[in-house]
Write the C-alpha cells for this entry.
Amino acid sequence: MKHRQGAGLKLRGIHRQFEGRPVINHLDLDVAPGEFLAIIGPSGCGKSTLLRLLAHLDQADQGTLDRSEADLDVAFVFQDPCLMPWRSVIDNVALPLELQGVPRHHRIPAAEALLRTVGLGDAQGKFPQQLSGGMKMRVSLARALITRPDLLLLDEPFAALDDITRHHLDDHLQSLWLSHPMTVVFVTHSLSEAVYLADRVIVLSAGGGNITLDYKVPLPHPRTAASRLSTPFIDHLRTVSEAFEGHSRTLA
Ligand SMILES: Nc1ncnc2c1ncn2[C@@H]1O[C@H](COP(=O)(O)OP(=O)(O)O)[C@@H](O)[C@H]1O
Ligand SMILES: [Mg+2]
C-alpha cells in the first residue's frame, strides 16, 4: 500500500555549483510529510536548482538528500502549462496514467474527478487553444495530481497570470493539497502568495543558496480571501517582507 501522507525530505550539506560558482551552498533542510513549504528569494539565487535536486532531475556535488520513500512519486508544475495542443483537456489530464498503462475506463473517471475539483468539469472536451491562461494552468495542476504524487514541486507556476486569476489558482492549489495528502514545495516571487498558501516559508539568499529566514505561518487552513486582509496575515507578511528586504539591502 502506497504511503499516503506525503514525502518527508532530509537534506544535509547539499552543495551544487556551476562553473566553480556555488549556487546551493551546503544547505541543510528538513521537510515534514504533508508540509506545504514555500521558497522565495531573488532571481538567480538557486530556487529552480533546488527543485531540480529535490526531483532528482539533477545531482548535488556534495551532501545527501534522503526521501522518506524509495519509490516516491514526484510531480512537477512549471510556469508554462506544457499542454499537448492536439489532445483534449481530459486526455491531457489523463496522459500520465496512459503512460503508466492504466486502461481508459479507469483513467477517464479519475481525470474527470480532478477536473471537477479545479472547476473545469464542463471543459473536458475542449482543446488547449480554447482555454485562457488560468484554465490551462488548472489543467496542468489536475494533470500533476492524477498519479497522486507524494511530492508536488511547483516552480513559479502562476507568475504569468493576473492577480485575480492567481488568487483563484492559489485557492485551487490549496484545496488540492487539503484533499490529496502530499508534500508541496512551491517556489514563488510573491511574498503574499507564499504566506497565504504555506505552512512554512523559507527565504534563500542571493549568491549562494543559504536560508536567511525559516518562518512558520501558524494560520489555520483553509485560508480564504478574507484571510488576505486579516491582521494576523498582514503581520506575518510584514515579518517575511522585512527579512527579505533587510537581506536584499545588506547585499545592495
Ligand atoms: N545547468 C546550469 N549550468 C550553468 N549554470 C546554471 C545551470 N542551472 C542554473 N545555473 C545558474 O545557477 C544560478 C541559479 O539559477 P536558478 O536555480 O535557475 O535560479 P532561480 O530559480 O532562483 O532564479 C543562476 O546563476 C544560473 O545561471
Ligand atoms: Mg527559477
Remarks:
- The radius of gyration is 18 Å.
